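Before a colleague's protein record goes any further, I have to sign it off. What it holds is a sequence and that sequence's fold in token form. Would you go through it and say whether the fold makes sense for this chain? The record follows directly below this note.
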Amino acid sequence: MNRSLLQIAVASALTSVAACAAEVSFRNDVMAVLSKAGCNLGACHGNKNGKGGFKLSLRGEDAGADYSAVVRDMLGRRVNPIEPEESLLLLKPATDVAHEGGNRLKKDSPEYALLRRWISDGAKDDRPTAPKLTKIEVSPRERFVGAADPVQIKATAHFSDGSKRDITRAACYEANNTLPEISPTGLVQPKSAGETTVIVRYLDQQTPVTLAFVPERKGFKWSNPAANNFIDEPVFAKLQKLKLNPSPLATDEVFLRRAYLDLLGVLPTREEAQAFGVPPSGGAADGDRLKAGLQARRAKLIDELMKRPEFADFWGLKWSDLLRNEERTLDERGVKTFHAWIRQSIADNKPLDRFAAELIAARGSTYSNAPANFFRALRDPVSRAEATAQVFLGVRLQCAQCHNHPFDRWTMDDYYDWAGVFARIDYKIIENKRTDKSDKHEFKGEQLVQIKATGSVTNARTGKASSPRFLGETKPVQPTADEDALLALSKWLTRADNHRFAAMQANRIWYHLMGRGLVDPLDDFRATNPASHPALLDALAAELVKSNFDMRHLIRLIMNSRAYQLASEPSGDNADDVMNYSHAIIRRLTAEQLLDATSQAAGVALDFDGFPAGTRAGQLPGPMPDGRKAKNRAPLDQFLATFGKPPRLSSTECERVSDPAIGQVFQMMSGPVMNDFVTRKDNRVGKLLDAGKPAREIMEDVYWASLTRTPSSVELKQHEDYVNRAKDKRAALEDVLWAVLNAKEFVLRR
């Protein structure tokens, strides 16, 4: 036997002997056995309604209720101190009696012996005397090993009386993917190379262990790429441990297109591309000239783009999505008012902490005080609490409404005390010209957001009014004489030392530029969902605080990093990497980007009902009202919906869908929008033909407008051959335009 495994076995045996010598604790021993056996999981007796008439609290969150369920229910059948082996608590999990959950306890196991001894000793509840678990200590917390190497996790529990115990066998082990197999004693065996996070859980404590199983990669030699700034250092350090070299830098035309799409949501023009240095014709660029000062040119471009009005349009769109700026609850005027404020805040480079504080503390007319629309869309304390936690703190609280959060630290008391902070928000409806009388969530007219003198939230666990308390704090909210709970919240939330707020905003910016959050999903911060690069996230959050929450400052740093500027093409063995930024993540253009890019490439201005001709999709204040049936949507609105423009009914970026669908194929191949763009007489092809331009020049212009480059000699020859053979030159050139707009290179951000 492996020496380390032998040590674990001996330690477990000694622990079992010690447990037999001491009195069995229901709180710290029996509850742990029930968790280890999976009895209190949601699929078993931890279900809301229990199973087979036996209900336990989910993951053992309520030991008192579980004791009652085990001992007092079923008139002693579940535990029988006189004949312990006849207790259902032993018979069923050992399958001596039919058990839907199958065999959960071996009769010769220490767990079976522990339960039997507790029952024979009188099945006591040691609530008054049991020391409380204070923490669990786990090792290793992080490990990089070979692709076939097992990792033994060790766990120690620390209690309030100063005692500690080896709980390696008693702890529960859960991986966040299917990569490893984990034994009951914490031995992690990988099935293939890759990364995983193992959650070690004991009673109400849980700790993550990050493991990477690295293939041998014979002949690997670290390329030692130069770091552009501090962002690259932790990214490259992890890649080196994983034996993955990063891809080379993206070419100028790829970087240029990427920067325009990420910052402005639009494509660069031919003139802008050639001014930046993209070669004006086929063949190699002047390599020496371009390499000299490459980073300076890219840094200058980034600064210039962030000064353009399209920057505020595009990043305002992101925040409008997040803040649920939609017409059913805000009405048309409210949507435009709120969007204009969001956009202007970004144009003015308003610090993110002030932006958030103004939203949280806002009240008054939703027409004259735009940020008040944040709470107009959130009509009850629970919705306000959940949205505020998720948007500004990266906390998904929803699970804690019905039970303690199974994967995070938050209890039901935390949930309802936090909701209580928002209990006194009220609405004075000046008018409501609702068109759908049966829809109580539709509002058309001015409203005043105000603060009531009284208001509370009932805690579903206790049945009593909650005590308003900020998330993670131990003391109730105590506003001063000149501020209410929301004003106090706006100050607490945006304090420079509130690391969670800064980290959430930094992660959001990283996600929008890099395609994946350091914490992923980007608004799900919890110990059991650790960041892929924790030190980098901390550094970005600190940099955001240091810059007084200057969003542009952080964007500039990220985009100037080598990690951001890498090519999307895999290099060496990094093709399968999806979370360590060894190459740029390819992603489809968003709905607005794709529609605006198609319009720009085809040379056809968009025309949305109710907006000036030429308004871009990225400038629209809100989505089409959800109440209209999809079949009645205008073609442009239908296009946006098909490609995932969100209805803005939830407070998360995850509402925006990017998954491919067959409807998207039809839209691009033969949809009414594409057909109109390609065949319209005054489109790009038509205008160039009317100007007497030859087919070759027209095709080059289409490539520049669509792909930010000139066509290759092969592409050009194929197109020319096709056009020259065609009887209808105009139709043939339309086919070329259609083909380019349907190319992967066009619809993807590389």
The radius of gyration is 30 Å. The first strand starts at residue 133 and ends at 139.
